[in-house]
Amino acid sequence: MHPLPAPLVAMLAAAFPDQPLRGLAPTVGGFSNLSMLARLGGTACVLKAAELPAKRADLRREARMLAALRGRRVCAPTLLAHLEGAAWTLLVTRRRPGTPGLQLYAGPPDALLAPLTALGRTLARLHALDAAPPPDAADAGLLLSLRAAALAAQLAELPLPGELREPFAAALAHPAWQPAAPRRVHGDAGLHNLLWGSRGLTLLDWELGGWGDPRLDLAWVAWTLRFRALPAPCWEALLAGYGREQAQALGLDGAALKALALGQVAGLLARAAGRPAWDEWLRRARWTVDGGQ
């Protein structure tokens, strides 16, 4: 049996007629989508495909983000194709070298300092880009303010324990989710979404990207570091790469960072509803509300 569904094989054959598909292998991670390493002709690629409507929307958003970032020095994958079929959405990106960030956690904390500094530099470049949201940003799901408002309305439909409803609602009502001048953000920044190697850093998985408060990316990195009980120098390395003065100019007050991190947890918990990951994100939500962040 071919490891790719037949509709995806047909889509690739039509889009790359003179470049045979070979060398298929699973990626490290790829929890949210069908994700494979491959070669198209002589080009090493990553294939990301989704069939469910919400996941297809994620990939369309990622395609928009990657296309807009081409040539902008943000260390993102190069988008080679965004293909739409009757039942599938497929992204083809150029494969980048490096060790997946999830594997870096297995090493000593000191080994995380260089990639975290590089991540800080990458986020600073991203947040400094001057482009306003595109005219169709709302329809394309690229405005984090609208996504936060929709999530706040969705809370009533989720089987949440009572002790989480009010903190989630308060977090999503914080002004940080409605910035007056939104900037491009990754939306899920952290070591878990990067490659790190001799050629530097590549920031992966832009499905949650869009225009919002840049503090979201910093708040989420801070949350991931605390959740994994990593020492303070890791956060200091991120700030050093970002630029301490530049970060402070954003207003890194604890209330805003907690509201952004908790709102992010609420969003990921909502996405896990009805799936095996629900219990784990429920645990993380309780940890956050109880003072983990």
Summarize the structure in words.
By secondary structure, the protein is an alpha+beta fold. Helix content is 45%, strand content 17%. The protein is built from eleven helices and ten strands. The chain has helices at 6-15, 53-69, 101-104, 113-128, 144-154, 162-172, 215-227, 232-242, 244-250, 254-271, 278-292; strands at residues 21-26, 34-40, 43-50, 79-84, 89-94, 99-100, 183-185, 194-197, 200-203, 210-212. A five-stranded antiparallel β-sheet has the order 1-2-3-5-4, with helices on both faces. Helix 7 packs across helix 10 and helix 10 (254-271) packs antiparallel against helix 11. The protein starts with 5 loop residues before the first helix and ends with a helix.
**Mind describing the biggest β-sheet?**
5 strands, antiparallel
> What is the percent of helical residues?
40-55%
Reading the helices and strands in chain order gives HEEEHEEEHHHHEEEEHHHHH
- What would the principal axes of the Cα set say about the shape? globular
What is the spatial order of strands in the main beta sheet?
1-2-3-5-4
Mean pLDDT across all amino acids: 94
Oligomer: single chain
In DSSP terms, counting alpha (H) and pi (I) runs of 4 or more, how many helices? 11
What proportion of the residues form beta strands (DSSP E)? Answer: 15-25%
**Radius of gyration, Cα only, in angstroms?**
19 Å
Number of strands: 10
What structural category do the secondary elements indicate?
A: alpha+beta
**Segments where pLDDT lies below 50 for 5+ residues?**
none
N- to C-terminal distance? 46 Å
